[in-house]
Design a protein that fits this description.
It is built from 3 helices and 3 strands. Strands 1-2-3 form a 3-stranded parallel sheet, covered by helices on one side. The protein has 86 residues and is of the alpha/beta class. The chain has one domain.
Length: 86
């Protein structure tokens, strides 16, 4: 993101399963702060087929202030791409 001065990210999580608490904590502690520091502003998430995995993603990202990161949740990659292109 830094090299290309990117600010948008599309995460295709359709095949994601429920993450272990340790993996979720690591993403919260390591990945998210690094992505925000690199300039992430708009994050489009294509929700997993698993309803529980989708709820976990939403729960984890719910604590991120909207002033720091705008998050959109989508059923398809195409919807996510359209949202990011606006």
């Amino acid at each position: 993101m830094k090299d290309h001065r990117g600010s948008r990210w599309l995460a295709d999580c359709r095949r994601q399963k429920v993450l272990s608490p340790a993996d979720q904590d690591r993403a919260d502690r390591e990945w998210l702060p690094r992505a925000l520091a690199a300039g992430l502003k708009n994050f489009a998430v294509v929700l997993p087929d698993s309803g529980l995995a989708g709820m976990n993603i939403k729960d984890r990202l719910a604590g991120v202030p909207k002033a720091k990161l705008e998050i959109g949740y989508f059923a398809t990659v195409e919807q996510a791409q359209e949202w990011l292109a606006r």
